[in-house]
Amino acid sequence: MRELKDAPFLDVFAEEFQADPAPVVEALRRETAVVQTAMGCMVITRDDVHRLLADPRLVSAIDAFVRLQGVTDGPVYEMTASSLLAVDGPDHARIRRIVSRAFTPKTVAPYRPLMRRLATSLIDGFSAAGRCEFMTAFAEHYPIEVMCHVIGVRPEDHERFANWGNSLTHILSLELGLYLDEVTTAVAGLMAYLDELIVERQAQPRDDLVSALIAATDDGDTLNPVELRSLLAALLFAGYDTTRNQLGLGLVLFCEHHQQWKLLAEQPDLAPGAVEEIMRVAGAISMTPRMSTEEIEVGGWKIPAGVLVSLSLAAANHDPAAYADPNVFDITVEREQQLTFGGGPHYCLGANLARAEMQEALPILAARMPDVAADGEPEWRSPGGIFGPDRLPLRFTPTPPAS
Known about the structure:
Elements: E1 2-3, H1 15-19, H2 21-29, E2 34-37, E3 40-43, H3 46-52, E4 58-60, H4 62-67, H5 74-82, H6 89-99, H7 105-108, H8 112-124, E5 131-133, H9 134-139, H10 142-151, H11 158-168, H12 180-203, H13 209-215, H14 225-256, H15 258-266, H16 271-281, E6 287-292, E7 296-298, E8 301-303, E9 308-312, H17 313-317, H18 351-368, E10 373-374, E11 379-380, E12 389-391, E13 393-395
Parallel strand pairs: 1-8, 3-9
Antiparallel strand pairs: 2-3, 4-6, 5-13, 6-9, 7-8, 10-13, 11-12
């Protein structure tokens, strides 16, 4: 078995890699499953990534990721370290058992008509103009509005939640230190609001997610208020921004593949496959960090305990060993399951909600924004963490408001 120190080195911050990582990864994958990085190592083959996502010897490194940026205590670190994203072992399994029934396709289905109404209403605001800046016109509103309705947030407080969500996205970036004051303020506001909301729903349950999670039980075991608050906060900062960026990345892909956009408008039943293909080709989350708790072997390489192991979801989603023509975007092809939602114990808890949001929105967008095309260059978020466009100007054939 070979030592990790002898593995090829990948500079993930190099200009060549940042500009176009695919050919760099493809060349490396022909000779190795593991590469060294400045922060540890990265696994780049699908079979190995898929297997390691469920390997108990690798635990979440979200708290380590935050500590690497100098945040080692205080409310931001406490919220992150106590979230379901960071907890492992029996505590993680217990919480998942209690709440899993609240996130099934069946429990998400009743929200689909709401998603369609919200998407239609937002598109009505710009469809007749024949152009929009997609992120501010649609992507920044739609997922947070859905999330607020699902959680049970008062309509007058939706904008506050959106502002908190925008600030909390820095937690999963490489720029947390630059925005720490803003994120700290957002954490304080969100936690105070959730505490109040939980108390309200304990006294007067409603048909919303907070009430469902309060009532959720596994053989009499329930969430305590701290666990409930941490879970709701994680859903906001992990769920809102990923869907926002995934929608933006999807529209970028469709601008480059006009026939696929037309096909989706004509055949809205292709939406589930379209969502999976968007997330495979251009996932908003390109890697998930893990920490090795003991020595493991991957592709003939020995990874010691205590190493930050980045599981490259993007590389796995483009591995020709699993996907024929992996760089081709085709919403009609049935493929091996994409890994952008992760896998194993930390498989995205809100995956069914995120899928439903995009499945409902994309066919409506395709029908109401025919002949969509770029109306200028996108402006991109800094690499690291959740990725996508900050600005995405689009033009299309105008359509009248649905109303």
